[in-house]
Amino acid sequence: MEIWINPACSKCRGAVRLLDEEGADYTVRRYLEDVPSPDEIRAVLERLGLEPWDITRTQEADAKELGLKQWPRDEANRDRWVQALAAHPKLIQRPIITADDGTAVVARTEDAVRDALSR
Fold it and tell me: Record's family (predicted)?
């Protein structure tokens, strides 16, 4: 199990705290420092069953500068979104937990963290 976090994020700290309380075996990836490649982002999206725009923090300053809210959300533009997430990792929703069963969850709630732990 791996968790992508930004240590400044309270949701990330809460997810890590819950993983520790449950004695989970996991690896922390500080994705702002260890930036995921476009291929890693695609792999996580597949595990999540989501599209890149589904995990994009569109309220961030970088998103506004890029005009992401106006980008088409379709297959033809999917790679453009993935490239933007790789170039601007702050735009990636957090935390993301890759579960041991090959799936992943955006673990913004305690229930989502527990869901990942149960997989």
Answer: Belongs to the ArsC family.
Yes or no: say if 1 and 97 are a contact pair by the CB < 8 Å rule: yes
Six-digit token pair at 39?
Answer: 């291929």
DSSP string, 77-107: GHHHHHHHHHH-GGGB-S-EEE-TTS-EEE-
CB neighbourhood size of 94 (10 A): 22
Six token digits for residue 79: 């790679």
Percentage of the chain modeled with pLDDT above 90:
98
CATH code, 2-118: 3.40.30.10
Distances (CA, A) of 3 to 36, 71, 109: 12, 28, 14
What average pLDDT score do residues 68-88 get? 97
